[in-house]
Amino acid sequence: MTIEQVLDQLANDPRWRRNITHWEVIPAQAGRYAAIPDWIDPRLRRALQSRGIERLYSHQAEAVEAVRRGENPVVVTPTASGKTLCYNLPVLDTILEDPKARAIYLFPTKALSWDQLSELQELAGAIDAGIRTYTYDGDTPVDARTSIRNLGHVVITNPDMLHTAILPHHPRWARLFSNLRYVVIDEMHQYRGVFGSHVANVLRRLRRVAAFYGASPQFICSSATIANPAELARALTGVTPRVISENGAPSGERHLLLYNPPLVNRELGIRRSALLEARQLANLFLYHNIQTIVFAPSRVATEVLLTYLQEDAVSAGRSPKSVRGYRGGYLPAERREIERGLREGKVRGVVSTNALELGIDIGHLDAAVLTGYPGTIASTWQQAGRAGRHAGTSVAVLVASSNPLDQYVVNHPDYLLGSSPEHGRVNPENLYILMSHLTAAAFELPFTDDEEFGVASTQQALAYLEEQGLLRHAAGRWYWSAPAYPAADVSLRSASSENFVVVDTTGSSPRVIGEVDRVSAPMLLHEDAIYIHQGQQYHVDRLDYEAKKAYVHKVDVDYYTDADLSVDIQVLDILKSDASHPLPRAFGEVKVSSLVTLFKKIKLYTHENVGSGPVHLPEEQMHTQSYWLQFPASVCAGLGQEELTAGLGGIAYLLANLAPLYVMCDRRDLQAVPQVRSPFTAVPTVFLYDRYPGGIGLSERLYDLHDELLHGALAVVEACPCSDGCPSCVGPPQEVGHAAKASVLQMLRRVVGAHI
Amino acid sequence: MSDFSAKLREWLAKPPGRPAFSGMPMPETFRSPLAASAGGRVVNTPYGPCVEFSHATSVLGLDGTDRVAAFDHDELSQAWQLVFGQDLPSPAGLQDVVFLDTETTGLGGAGAVVFLVGLGRLDAQGHFLIRQFFLEDYQYEPALLDVLAGELAGARALCTYNGRAFDAPIIDNRFVLNRRQSPLAALVHFDLLYPARRLYRRQTQDCSLTTLENQVLGISRAGDVPGNIVPILYQDYLASRNPGPMAAVLAHNRQDVYSLFLLTRQLLHEVTAPLAASHKSHHLDLGTLLEQRQRLREAATVYELGLLEKPSGSEDFALTKERLSLLYKRLGQLDKAAALWEEEVRRKSSRYLPYIELAKYLEHVRRDLSLALEVVAAARGHRMHDQWPAWVQADLEHRFQRLARRTNSHTAQ
Ligand SMILES: [Zn+2]
């Protein structure tokens, strides 16, 4: 069957049709073109022509002209719209004009860097004017580094390398920095939240170092669709951007289906699992030989889905190798092989976490299945965009999970399809982040007495570092004065710089099979956990917490494990509060202590709880920012102890799941904790806090959005068809209590009703 | 981390302008407690003041190695080439080589500062002169670099210990950061770590300069400062201006420069007088070095001497014999080589090379097929046979089949 026939089946067969809550057809679009500007070097023009490029898309022409005028363009167009030419063209043209000129390309991942390198090298090769392009990352051989530093016209790297290897050693890169004309930032929308706040500071350091060498580079950014590309670009780069968002590239007909798994128990609000529905949809496409990508919401889900689809491939007489997994934690060689298999068509299906959401060239896939709402509109479009780079018809299906955010999205197509994408937010002034980079910057070049780094209080912050024994103030400058290398202590990606490694001891010699970030490690690698890698289950025999190593061996069991996290909160300081609202709220600093105490064994396929065990790991502490809601007696009146507990649990569940709609962040970036009698407020309280030391501004923003949040929460609960709570509104009754839905409705109606 | 936030907020809330805490106030006029207490002097440059210390040692008449100082130009350049595998820039003598060692505030990167440079040079009278330049405080770095540039401008070559990886990049960084051309670019840089490691690694637990000076040169430092606390002592000096511990760092650096020179001299001595009793390198390594530098006859003599010194039956002994046999073969002395292989085969050596080489020799040179077959058969039946590499086993099998065939056809005739 062709893809059109499969679409017909989805539209006509009631088994599928009744679950589709919305079917959007995005018509094919003709391209809009512009001539290659006549100032482009004839050698570059010929190279483009030799590759079949006789004219540009309108947005490409706009971008290269903007660069020519000295502006800093931000190109906001969809996947596969020829964004790379927007920067490759002006960069190569400048190098042809001035062979001393240099450019740095930043990509969020190593995999992307490699992909871009081959594209750039092909074009540079076609020009044949000795333009040298290199990637510089952890895999670069030591003996190649000197020539890359001195000779590379274009150095392709990632923010982490810039942060730990290039900027702290900038004198060795003097030739590059002295002639630095362009900094290219692809996938700019990836730099938000904690990561983005770090990257903004890394770029601040880059501008400072470049200025030392007399250079003031232009920034060329590209981004998926977000609400505030100009604001984010300015926050990241410190320069005034020019947004280019009119896409001139043609595209084939695209179908976007919103799919809600059927209710299997209306009373309990239980729907069929999104994972199982995604499995069926993927099998429908794969059975008809339609190359398909399946996105899964987590590593564990990726592995579980992969196991299913490989089994299904075997039952259908296909090779299990025709379906592969792909996620962070796989080793580079393994990834390369999978990418190649996809491009060459040997791999027919791939199950991925959002690692493949980025623009890695895996050729054109025909169908995408999104298991669960990816958390943001921008990610949704990027994941859906993996299907249909071409002129032909393509389809993307978003399968909702039962959590409130997903349910909201599939039942409100306007939210996704209307023109309200999220804001990409960074908070470069987060104290922890700013101080980390101020320290790194002081190592790179002495600060002067009148210098500012992001904040007006830079001089006081430097004095603080002096008191800590890191700097010495002499003759109007702050000199680095410690035997330390500060960039090594700061990871851009998570609270800690070190990952846990997973060691397989099944064979005769132990072998590292993967990595897990520190935050997830206690949940995934506690002793007796089942860790899944490439569809294979491993039992965790021992977790060496100090050495950050987990020792595992292969097993074949019919369950997976899920760890329970218990969290305690202590308020340190109130920064904002409002007691006049019927539901008083506050914002401030808190200390969060978290501890994994036990895990559950959950049976594969039926997902029932078949056992549990204790976890013995040290408690983790964090200072962060929180927004909290204090429930007065008037709101709780008439509720018994059990009902109140259930109500608070329900509200915490609801808010944690709904909040990402209002602030562009991962569900993991925020955590909600209910306290029936908070030791601090002395009344029933729900805390929502930033899961990053020091906070990244999410809870502060939620404090401001108090009313919207409460309205949204009430709307979700009122619209839910379940009788006394379900995973789509206040949480499953087994977890939050049977009284949850009634209590939440009562509490929220009192608040929202009273206020309007 | 618990009070980080609160503490920092307190700092950030302070009124702008120069904050209260600023370490030691800078004196109006330049003053160096270290210079005052350790006999240094202040040199004024167009870039400001710099503190200098000088020290001379007579290096003649210590031991056999002092003959190196008397080398004529040809002898020196040959010896130098043997040690480093690279020529001294002509027409440089030992007097044109600067021996350099630095003390820094960190291990590398733009924030690591050189606060002490020791430069050593031999003079025509056989004195080794060490001059040290000290950074009294960070703002005087331009002056230190200016003096260093001037000193190095008169040299042809630079000798360091691990300077390629450590000292040179940091010095280069400092010049770039001060917007000056690094003087190192004009010098040929010889890093003694590599040849020293080649020759001494078997006898010493590590190849740090301190270990080698102790185990090769027999020098033991009394009350030396451990290298890893040197940066901390400098921070203490900046804060307290107490010259005591810094004077110990000065002595440490001076000894490093001096040992670097003595070790260079020792190596120059050993490669040119490989049979002298005073050599400390391992005969296997010295022989290999000489072989690589095409000094084949000297290499053979070194191995021969090694065989006399080492207990037979040791791993070293067998290895030396093997090297020597291959070297004899290379020199065309096949009978001498064969005698060594035969000895090894007789004592049932567990190394495969003597069997293969002896079989080849018997078959192709002596044309004694049946004896060759016997040797191959012994190898195939050796208890270690199954652990030898696959290609060796295949070679033996192939050889055995061919020899068996040929001896059979011989007997048949
Ligand atoms: Zn519900």
Q: In short, what is this structure?
A:
The complex is a heterodimer of chains A (756) and B (413). By secondary structure, chain A is an alpha/beta fold.
What are the main properties of this structure?
heterodimer, A: 756 residues, alpha/beta, Rossmann fold, 5 domains, 32 strands, 36% helix, globular, B: 413 residues, Nucleotidyltransferase, domain 5, 2 domains, seven-stranded mixed β-sheet, elongated, binds zinc ion
How would you explain this protein's 3D organization?
The complex is a heterodimer of chains A (about 750) and B (about 425). Chain A contains 26 helices and 32 strands. Chain A has about 750 residues and is an alpha/beta fold. Chain A is globular and about 75 Å long. With about 425 residues, chain B is α/β, with parallel strands linked by helices. Helix content of chain B is about 50%, strand content about 10%. Chain B contains 16 helices and 7 strands. Chain B has helices spanning about 5-10, 35-40, 75-85, 140-155, 165-175, 195-200, 210-215, 230-240, 245-270, 285-290, 295-310, 315-330, 335-345, 355-365, 370-380, 390-410; strands at about 40-45, 50-60, 95-105, 115-120, 125-135, 155-160, 190. A 7-stranded mixed β-sheet of chain B has the order 1-2-5-4-3-6-7, with helices on both faces. In chain B, α10 (about 285-290) packs antiparallel against α11 and α13 packs across α14 (about 355-365). Chain B is elongated. Classes of the chains: A alpha/beta (about 750), B alpha/beta (about 425). The interface of A and B includes residues 442, 484 and 572 of A.
